[in-house]
Every structure is written in C-alpha cells, then in structure tokens.
Amino acid sequence: MAEHAILIVEDDSTVRELLKYRLGKHYEVFTATNGEEALQEIDDRIPDLIISDIMMPKMDGFALQSALQADKNTRVIPFIFLTARADEPARQEGARTGVDDYITKPFDMEQLLSRVERLLERVEMFQTQLDAEIGRDFSNRLLPDNVPSVEGYEFYFHSEAHEQGGGDLFDWSETDEGTYFLTIGDVMGKGLRAKFYAYSFLSYVRGTLHTLLQESSSPAAVMEHINDMLLEDEVLEDTFASFLLMHWDPAAHTVTYANAGHCRPVLLTENGPEIVEHSDLILGLEADASFSDATLSLAPNTALVAYTDGLMELPTTNGNMLGEDGVLEATATAYGSANPIDTLHETALEHSSEDSFQDDLLVVWLQRAK
Amino acid sequence: MSFDVESLSSETVVVHMGEALDFRNADSFKSTFQAHVEDGVRNFILDFSETEVLDSTGLGSIFSLYREISPDDGKVAFADVSRPVQVVVQLTRTYKVFRQFPSVQAAKEALA
C-alpha cells in the first residue's frame, strides 16, 4: 500500500514545519503557504487529505475549499480546517459541504493525528469495499453459468476468484456441428485493472469467434486475430494475455488447440500423466507472431486438464511453487476420483504453505468415459 | 524499492533485477526503465542472477519495456537467468523474443 500523501496549507512557518514534522513520521507530506500555491500543488498531484488554515494571504482557506468543491477531481479529497478563528461565525462558515473536520488552534497534536488517521481509514475502507464489489462482478461475468453437457464425457469446472487475483477467464460455445470452442485465458496483471481488461478482452474474443467460425475452425487462426487486436487496439495497449483455445469434437474424440504462452495442460491416461507440450508465444508481445494448431485424440477414460497460473504458482511449504511437476503429481492423484477437481484442489493445498489459494484459480477437467 | 542500474553507454544499460520482480515492485521497475528510455537508452540487459520470483505482473512490465523500445530497434536481453525465471520464460515462450546470455559479461559483449 502506497504511503498516503497529505497537503498542508498554512502561512505560519512555525505551525507548518511542526505539522510537517509530526505528520511526516506517518505520511508523505507536502506544503503550500496559501490557497493559490495549494491549487498549483494539487494540479501536480492529488493528495489523499488536505489540512488547511483559513486566514492566509492571496487566497484564503474558504476560497481554496470552494475552488476544490467546484472541481469533480478534487471534491472528494478529505478536508480539515485548522484555524485560530474559534468564533462562532467562522465555525459555521467552516462547517460546510466537503469539510470533514474543523480544528481550532491551539490544537492538540495527538487529537489531530488520530482524526487524520480515522479519516484516511474511512476513505480506504470505502475504496476497498467498492473494489471488491466491482471485482466480484467482473469475475462473475468472466465465467459461464454452466458447462457443456455431452453424452460420453464428464466436464468439470472450478473457479475461485480472489480479490488480489488477476484476470482469469473461461468461456465456451457450441458450434452448429455439435463441436465446442473452449477458451481459457489469463490477462496479466493484478486486481481490478486486470479483471477489467480480461472482461473487455473476452467480449472481443466472443465476437471474433462467432465471425471467424463462419470461415475456419482453426484455434490458431483465431489466436492470430486476437494477437493483432491486442497490438493495435489503443484501449488494450500494454495488455498481455496467455491463452489456450481448444476446439473439442466429441464425436471424433479429438481436441485441436493452440496455446499462446498459457500454462500447459495435462493429459491423463491409464499410462500416467503427461504435459501437452506444444505452445507458442504469449499474446500482445510481437506483431507477426505465428500460432499453430495441434490435435490430441482422446482414447476412452482420457482426461484433459487445463488450468491457470494460480495453481502452478501456489507457494509450497519448502518455499518454492507447486510448479508443473507438482501439478502433474496432483492431477495424477485426482485422476479416477469421483470429483477430480475437488481432489486436485485438496492435493495441491496439502503441499501448500497456505490453507487457501491467494490468487485466482481456474481448472477445467474434460474426461471421456470408459 | 528501486533498481540498481549500471550504465554501459548512452544506449545500453544493465538492470540488476534483485530477488523479485512481481506485482509489488512492477510499477517501480516501469518508472525505472521509463526514465532511461526517455534519456535515449535502447538496449536493456536484465541481470536475473539473484531473482527467485518472477510473476505474471512482473513479466508484464518487461513486456511493456519491450513494446516501448522495439519500434526503435531496441533490445531486451536476459542475462544469467535463474531457474525460477527460466521456468516462466519457457512457459510463455518468450525466449523467442528476448535473447538469453549465460552471463552479464556475455550480454555486454554481444550488445556492445
């Protein structure tokens, strides 16, 4: 968490330096000697809280506060008046919209510090709640309500969105021929920003898939389009994503896929687990990147497990991450159990130093019946 | 946390990446390289000898650097890549874009 920045506006240098010294122990403090200077400082950088004197040359505290109220970018900054004017008219004038506190000189420093702390805590609490709410909303929209239901196959899907997580996404659609496109991805970055980009991105992918499927069913061809979009679209500039696009044909028992730098899936058969190795460059990095398809055939009882990096990056008790080897082992343990994703989850956590995942986790488990 | 940057010429620097590049310090890495890009630096040798953690946000910040300097023929080279970094580079297939060198010295000679 970045240090909070406080702007002190005070013409009396003794009071200004005292405040700077005491508040400077806990916060990043910058100062101005009057309202005009304060507005210039705020123009450079929006503080998290302002403490202002009232009587000052050039532009007084009331004028400063009115100017801040008039601008939507500065209206919500917590604002404390600190003044010698203890008389009732001044107090009434000070107690107006947008003023959070009014402290008269001489003031008790401890009291001022505790008010500042409380105000900042409250603002942060609102922000965290709002972020969590929007984050949950995005996460829900990034995931489907149900999974494909196909005779002769079991399809399991598990997702856990974490507030500190990133932009994991999963989507599927059925074609007219009774085949399915499965999209698993992870937009790089953390928190709301990643979720927002993932959401924009998924909308685009859904649209693109629909259009491209008229011409071709190649995941690699779709991947090229998505990569071009990431490099050309200004809104998505500086967005990178790993992506696994699979075209599943249940009648032919095949999965044709293209992998753009995403965690490599695991193929489980009675002979044991193996990594599905083929993959290409992550999306959004290189304009002329090429992608290619590979096809897996699914013999009876074969499972294909795709996941996001929350699983692989799970911290283990020995200070490392679960890694691809750990994922191989955990999927092998889960293979054959009644609810493989639950077993996979439990097995992974047994190796973990945490008792829950601290990142988004998404697992898709597709298995052909015996 | 700031990054230790060693200037080799007006165009080339070595950035010692330290123990971790992840969501906690990716922004700090971005402002570090930004300042050098503005000064005209085009080649970045990233020294990963001590790096134990490279997460997707951290890797994303390196991608941002690459996106910024590649139109001017800038290069991002990885030197003395530790095992955890190697894993990420393999998975994302980014070795196709970032040249790797066994040591900072070898990278210096190649890019000089």
Structure in a nutshell:
The complex is a heterodimer of chains A (370) and B (112). By secondary structure, chain A is of the alpha/beta class. Chain A has helices at residues 13-24, 35-44, 61-69, 88-94, 109-141, 191-212, 219-232, 309-312, 323-334, 340-350; strands at 5-9, 28-32, 49-52, 79-83, 101-104, 153-160, 167-174, 180-187, 241-249, 254-260, 266-269, 272-275, 294-297, 303-307, 361-368.
Report on the architecture of this protein.
- The complex is a heterodimer of chains A (370) and B (112).
- Chain A contains ten helices and 15 strands.
- Chain A is of the alpha/beta class.
- In chain A, the strands form three sheets. In chain A, strands 2-1-3-4-5 form a five-stranded parallel β-sheet, with helices on both faces. A five-stranded antiparallel β-sheet of chain A has the order 6-15-14-11-12.
- In chain A, helix 2 packs parallel to helix 3 and helix 9 (323-334) crosses helix 10 (340-350).
- With 112 residues, chain B is of the alpha/beta class.
- Helix content of chain B is 39%, strand content 23%.
- Chain B contains four helices and seven strands, in the order E-E-E-H-E-E-H-E-H-E-H.
- In chain B, a hairpin with a 4-residue loop joins strand 1 and strand 2.
- The model of chain B has no long low-confidence stretch (mean pLDDT 91).
- At the A-B interface, loops of A face helix 2 and helix 3 of B.
Tag the structure with descriptive keywords.
heterodimer; A: 370 residues; alpha/beta; 36% helix; elongated; B: 112 residues; globular
Give the low-pLDDT segments of chain B.
Answer: none
Major sheet summary line of chain A: 5 strands, parallel
Distance between the termini of chain B: 29 Å
What fraction of residues of chain B sit in β-strands? 15-25%
Shape annotation of chain A: elongated
Please trace the helix and strand order of chain A, writing H or E for each element. Answer: EHEHEHEHEHEEEHHEEEEEEHHHE
Average pLDDT level of chain B: 91
Strand order of the largest sheet of chain A: 2-1-3-4-5
